Each structure stands twice: as C-alpha cells, then as structure tokens.
Amino acid sequence: MSAADFVSPDAIRRQFAQAMSRMYRAEVPLYGDLVDLVARINTQVLGEDRELAAQLERNDGRGRLDEERHGAIRVGTAEELATLRRLFAVMGMQPVAYYDLSVAGVPVHSTAFRPLAADALAANPFRVFTSLLRLELIEDQALRAQAADILARRRIFTDGALALIAQAERDGGLSQADAARFVTEALETFRWHSDATVALQTYHALSAAHRLIADVVSFRGPHINHLTPRTLDIDAAQQGMIEAGIAAKAVIEGPPRRACPILLRQTSFKALEEPVHFPDTQGGDTGTHTARFGEIEQRGLALTPKGRALYDQLLAQARDSDGAGSTDSDYGTRLRAAFAAFPDDHDTLRREGLGYYRYQLTAAGRAAPEQVADLPADALIAAGLATADPIIYEDFLPVSAAGIFQSNLGGGEQRAYAAHANRDAFEAALGASVHDEFALYETLQADSLAALHG
Ligand code: OOG
Ligand code: NI
User: Fold this and answer.
1) So where are the chain's domains?
2) Whole-model pTM?
3) What is the ipTM for the molecules in this complex?
4) What would the pLDDT profile of 314-372 be if each residue is shown by its tens digit?
5) 438 alpha-carbon distance from chain centroid
6) Mean per-residue pLDDT for 51-57?
7) Which CATH number describes the domain made up of 3-300+393-435?
8) How far does the centroid of ligand 2 lie from the alpha carbon of residue 439, in Å?
9) 225-259 pLDDT tens trace
10) I want to staple 224 with a disulfide (CB 3.0 to 4.6 A). Which of 125, 190, 278, 424 is the partner?
11) 3-class secondary-structure state, position 431
C-alpha cells in the first residue's frame, strides 16, 4: 500500500473524537445537554458579534468550533502512558507541556496530547489531558505495593488496538478500513466499566489514601472522565447551567471576564455518583464512585512567557490576598481587581509582547503587493493592509486543572504533597519529551509574519 492510500491522521482524529463524543453522550446524558447549551450560545454570540464571527472565519476557527472537545483520562503506569503516546500519535496527537498537580494536593503529573500544526488544529483540535498517577506519593508502603501490583496486571488496550498501532508505525499510516477498526478498538480503552476489579475493602483503602488513587487503580481502564465543548461566552454558559438546574461549580476557573479573552476559563458540574459493583459483594451491597463529570471552557489569546508571568502573578494575588483561595464569595471581586493590571485591548497586548498574534494581509494588502513589500507589520496594520488576530490558547492551566480535579473529588483534600515537579520522571515514563507550548505559538506567529512578505 502506498502513502497515498492512507487516511490522514487528522481524519482518524476526527472520527475518534466523534466516536468518543457519541459514547460519552450515551454514558453521561448531561454531557449531551451541555453540548446543546453551548451550541445554542455560540450561535447567538456569532449572530450578535460580527467582528468575532469574521475573526473566526479569517483564522479557520469557525469550522472546528462545533466539534471542538477536550477530554481527560488518568493512567497508572509508565507502560500505559507510553502506549497511549503511540496510540495518540496514530491520530496526529503529540504530548504538549508538563503539568505538576502535586502542589495542589493531586498525586499526578500530566501532559496534553493534541495536534501541533495550524492546519491540523483547524481540521480538528481534539485534545486529551492525560495524567499519570504518582504511586510514590502513597505513604503506606503496603498499600503502595498492592496498588502497583494491581496496575501491573491489568491490560488497558485491546489486542486489536495494539496490533493496529504497530502496523501504523511500521507502514507509516492506516487504510480507510484499518482506520475505522482502529477507532473502534481504541475506544474500548476509554469506556466506563461499572465493575470494579478490586474488593470493596481495597477500594476504601485506596480511596482513603486519595480518591484519585482509587479511581485509577480500581477499574479495568482509564475511563474518559469528561469531554468539554468550547463556548464563546462562558458566563452565559454558567448561567444556562444554573437555569437548567445543573449543579455547576461555584467559581469559573482562570482569568476574569474581559473584553479580550486570554488563555482559558472553565466551569464544570459535579461528578455523578455512580453505582459500582465490587467482585466480593455478590448480589448484595454495591458501592458508588464519583469520577465522571461535565465541563465547559472558553479559550482566548495564547500568552507569551512575559504575559504568562503576569497572569500567574495576578492570579496568585487574587487567591492569596488573605489566604482565602478561590472558594469564598469575594473571590470574583478580588480576581477582577487584580486583573485590572492586565492590559485589555489587543493593540497594547500585542505591542507589549504579552500575547501571540497571527498576521495576515487584508484584501487591500493582497491587491497592493508593491506597497506591502516596503512596510513592516505594524505599518501594514496601521494602513489597513494587514490584520493581527489573537492566536488561541490550545493548552491547559495547572491551577485551573487542580480546581477542576478538586471540585470533582469532593472532600477537603487540599493538602499539597511535599513532592516536587518531576518532569524528567514523567518524560522517562512517556518515552519522549513533551513539546514546549511557547515554542509552538512562537512558530505560528513567526510563520504568519514571514508569509506577509513571502
Ligand atoms: C483532569 C482535570 C484537568 C482541565 O480541563 O483542566 C482538566 C482530570 O480530572 O482528570 O481536564
Ligand atoms: Ni477538562
């Protein structure tokens, strides 16, 4: 078979994202309600905000919006993580960024698998936030050994999926028929299983160490725990959730509402309490487990390291001003007050080097190549010959992620682990290094600048 007969990784990713969405809709009907709510709000926003609609069109952003999702999973071993890396690579998804959640009391570290190139993101930006459990953070040695033993024995991939991954690696791609089989086989890894693999007592012991440990260790595989549509107005979405009687999280994670959205804002509904059958409780008691929830996000401008440092500083200021964290009722006020120091118009954000922008010639610019040739980007923009649109943030935020984890674990597990970030250990487990997100945005911006005079 020649390369021309292979399906593109983008097409496989789209099929997989759609299959995952169908599966999750059937498993968690409230997710379907969120998708419908977001679609309604996005249509309304685009009808009212012509400028935003034009900007999305200019940047190939309209088509992807209706399908855009991210999901999240948690795995237990290096081998599981490394095999996931190979599985996602078949769909053109690469690990980007390292997130340390231990500082927020969650015993995992993470990356996100996602497409890298502008055209691949436009085709389908599906991403999966993927966390690896840090067993070394379980203090009880016997429990740690037991968890490691359970994890070592499970197999989270089907034989068919493993064979097709190897085939794709060997041949450089998959045919249409094999891609369809790959999607079906890969989906099995992410399915929910209401049968636990451990005794109820073990589940309780793991849960007492940390509820997340029980979630990872007690089941056959890394069930997808949420799937998140992207809204253009998260405040409207939050309001819509409340009006629909959905138990929304109290606080929207991330920056406050702004004229120029930056990075990522997220809200979620609490995890469902689901019946679980334990192998030692025949016909009798079943237990419950909370793992799966719904989330909505709004994405904005990707920030440069300088912009990100300012964001981190202002967020810390809002959270720490009286040691109150993000859960009290004044938090919204403090957050808005702190972010008054973050410029909120695109000219200033761009000129001060706080965010990444995509440059393009306007129709007038394309019609006047000789005029364009002599002018730098700023002059082209001033003359109406070029536009600079925000490059959208495609990644995640560790403080927000910790907030999402916490609100879905219940209980007061805010205690930070003494452990530090351990990116080297994560990359050793992954079997690859993670891409630097700033370098990716920098390249997108530089390519667009080069194309102005190309
Ligand atoms: C992942 C939570 C992080 C996000 O959007 O920040 C996340 C998890 O609960 O496994 O999905
Ligand atoms: Ni999420």
Assistant:
1) 3-300+393-435
2) 0.95
3) 0.99
4) 999 998 765 556 666 788 899 999 999 999 999 999 999 999 999 999 999 999 999 99
5) 16
6) 93
7) 3.10.180.80
8) 23
9) 999 999 999 999 999 999 998 888 888 999 999 99
10) 190
11) coil
Burial class (CB in 10 A: 0-12, 13-18, 19+), 413: middle
Backbone angles phi and psi of 395, in degrees to 5: -110, -155
Report DSSP letters for 90-159, one per residue.
HTT-EEEEEEE-GGGT--EEEEEEE--SHHHHHH---EEEEEEE-GGG---HHHHHHHHHHHHH---S-H
CA of 395 to the centre of ligand 2 (A): 10
Edge-to-edge, what's the strand order for the sheet holding 108-114?
A: 94-100, 108-114, 127-133, 69-75, 226-229
Show Cβ contacts of residue 417 under 8 Å, excluding neighbours closer than 6 positions: 102, 103, 105, 107, 137
- Ligand 1, atom 7, lies closest to the CA of 401
- Nearest-CA residue for ligand 1 atom 1 is 72
Tell me the two tokens of residue 271: 């995890």
Q: Which of 263, 253, 231, 254 is nearest to 390 (CA)?
A: 263
CA 402 vs CA 26, 111, 224, 339, 398: distances in Å: 27, 13, 17, 21, 6
Q: What is the pLDDT of residue 321?
A: 65
What is the DSSP-derived secondary structure letter of residue 173?
S
- 334, 337, 341, 343 alpha-carbon torsion, rounded to 10°: 110
Query: Is 109's C-beta closer than 6 angstroms to any atom of ligand 1?
Result: no
